[in-house]
Amino acid sequence: MTETAMGFLGIMTDRRHGNPPIAEPEFCSHLCRAAPLYDLKVLVFHPEGVAKDGASVSGYLWQGGQWVPAQAPPPDILYNRCFYRTPEKKQSAAAALAVLSRSLPWSRGLPDKWGVYEILRRSRAAAALLPETLVYSGRKALGNLLAEREYGVFLKPKTGSHGKRTLHAVLLGKHEGCGVSVRGRDRMNEPFQYVFGTLDEGLNWIHRFIGQHRYIIQPYLHLTGSGGQPFDVRVLMQKNGTGAWTLTGMAVRLGGRGSLTSNLHGGGTAVPALPFLLAEYGAAGRDLYQELISAAALLPPLLEESCGRLGELGLDFGIDAGGRLYLLEANSKPGRTVFRLTGDRRAARLAAENPLRYARHLLLAPWQQTTSCFKGSSVQRENDINGS
After folding, report:
1. 301 and 246 in contact (C-beta within 8 Å)?
2. pLDDT(362) > 90
3. Model's pTM, two decimal places?
């Protein structure tokens, strides 16, 4: 890094075991190594590394091929990669964001799954991609839904990730007193399956499993390939060096046979999208590929209109046996592992470096007047910096 570096990017991430104790070390080190190409310097830090008055940040720099502890002034741009897995972590991150309010957020966040659904269903084109979605409101309503759905329903936390605490419940027969089959993944992402002798037993167990968490319910969709593996399609949309949305890459995520989800954290893997679609759907696979591209381009501006400026989105699509496309989830803090698994080097490189390109664009945008924070200068910030 030279003394003429024009900007300072801070990456706020979770703590983990290891050296250094940061989450996503491979991704963070790639950002640090590539940063000089974009006249940026990068510091990776935890929320607790932010001084209580916000005057300094303690974290780690990548220097000479290794991580080095360092302290710096507040960053020009703040790239928040924290995942709020506990109330305590959420509170810690919120406190850090509050005192770093003069740092320009690299991206806003998205609301929970229900909030995203509420936003997108206002668009006719986006609504066509959405499965019917309801909020879990108790045992009676769930029982009625099970009676109406031959293949059952899928329940997932409004704020969950990685397929954890998801459920598929299906009624075993139509007569009164029939049983319920429930399969899913627990909070540790371990699979389970139970069969309850009566509807009431099943509903009571599900209600206890949900507890105080907020859940949404969708029809169970058959999103399984010819090999018996559940699959979905991850599309990574990112802003580039001009601030324009671009499609970085696309990959199919495959779960194990009999698995409820295709999430990588649940033991899944990834394969290139187009060859998979052609193998599954024949010549129609190419049309589906183009549909995915069009759907992925449609959604980011719709979400930005309600949520504020975004930097990247991981969009997960399901495709049923008839070739109908469904948006399963939108994630404002997507992972990048799929491209390493598929061997798509171009997408992997862009996925890691587009955040730097976009950070540089933010610093060069008309409202910005900046030089490096490491040299003690200041940055003119956006007027509205209320969220992360």
Report:
1. no
2. yes
3. 0.89
